[in-house]
Design goal:
Layout: E1 6-9, E2 23-31, E3 37-39, E4 48-56, E5 58-63, E6 66-71, E7 75-80, E8 84-88, E9 96-103, H1 109-119, H2 130-143, H3 150-172, H4 180-192, H5 199-205, H6 210-221, H7 225-243, H8 248-254, H9 260-271, H10 275-280
Antiparallel strand pairs: 1-2, 2-9, 3-8, 4-7, 4-9, 5-6, 5-8
Helix pairs in contact: 1-3, 2-3, 4-6, 4-7, 5-6, 8-9
Domain HTH araC/xylS-type: 183-281
Protein name: Helix-turn-helix domain-containing protein
Keywords: Activator, DNA-binding, Transcription, Transcription regulation
């Protein structure tokens, strides 16, 4: 789908009764002029957050004395005002084509900062990922006049930032992106969760030191190996609690706990319920399964 070139600005009146995200501008451009240049310290329209995604060609983004050549599939994130510059690459043989969003930091700065910490200032994003698809839709909606009030604008900004943050979380926890030794460690836990697995045993299995195993596993999965093991065990326990009539002690033994009391404590810590409360429903909702981040 062709995206109309141009910049679309929004200056809706603020409602003091509502806390809304504020969309400042959205657009698409094709730059081949070497005079194209923005300096984050000289702009007077801030405070703003800029997300700019390259479709083709190449630009340059400078920040804190670091120079990045921004090519197709790469975005950069800039806070305005701020110590950065971006401009058309002087040696580029084709136009620099990109999409961009400018919005106020209201309500979304924590999302922005979290993504920035984890992905960096110049991350790569697949063209078919949810945030880029949403970016295209927002620019198209802006061009078509469909962002016609502050509520629609706020929803667009918040959804975009949520998808951007979610992308980083799912990337971290996508097994396809994990290093081989982390995959092997996770598979070992998933296959042997009913046994007493020590970190030393797991480290030996994947040929890593205990320290490097914990560091790599945590960086890739978002959980320590022990927390991952607990997550697998509790997940299996929920299946047994709702799918069988086995006693609490028998379920504890089957999923690898040395005693029913230790299992009850671990289950309650993870779910907020005892195994008996989960099984019966009690006065709470009758959960079939609980999901964790």
């Amino acid at each position: 789908m062709d995206i109309p070139k141009g910049t679309y600005g929004f200056r809706f009146a603020e409602d003091p009764e509502l806390q809304l995200c504020i969309l400042y501008a959205a657009g698409s451009d094709s730059i081949s002029n070497p005079s194209y240049h923005w300096d984050g310290l000289t702009r007077s329209d801030g405070p703003l957050l800029l997300f700019q995604y390259t479709l083709s060609g190449q630009g340059v983004y400078e920040s804190r004395e670091q120079l990045h050549r921004v090519s197709a599939g790469q975005a950069f994130l800039a806070e305005i005002p701020g110590p950065h510059r971006y401009y058309y690459h002087p040696e580029s043989s084709e136009p620099w084509e990109f999409l961009f969003l400018l919005f106020r930091p209201n309500l979304i700065l924590p999302h922005w900062r979290k993504f920035l910490r984890e992905a960096g200032e110049v991350p790569y994003l697949p063209s078919d990922c949810a945030p880029v698809k949403l970016l295209r839709m927002i620019v198209n909606d802006a061009a078509a006049g469909r962002i016609s009030d502050p509520l629609i604008a706020s929803s667009s900004v918040y959804q975009f930032m949520t998808e951007l943050t979610r992308l980083q979380v799912t990337t971290l926890r996508n097994k396809y992106t994990w290093p081989d030794n982390v995959k092997r460690a996770a598979e070992f836990i998933e296959q042997h969760y009913s046994q007493m697995i020590s970190i030393d045993q797991l480290a030996e299995h994947v040929s890593l030191s205990k320290y490097h195993l914990i560091r790599r596993f945590s960086a890739s999965t978002g959980l320590t190996p022990v927390a991952y093991l607990t997550r697998i065990r509790i997940d299996k326990a929920m299946e047994l609690l709702r799918g069988t009539e086995h006693s609490i002690d028998m379920i504890a033994e089957r999923i690898g706990y040395s005693s029913g009391s230790y299992f009850i404590k671990a289950f309650r810590t993870m779910t907020g319920l005892t195994p008996g409360e989960f099984r019966s429903g009690g006065e709470s909702l009758a959960y079939r399964k609980l999901f964790f981040d």
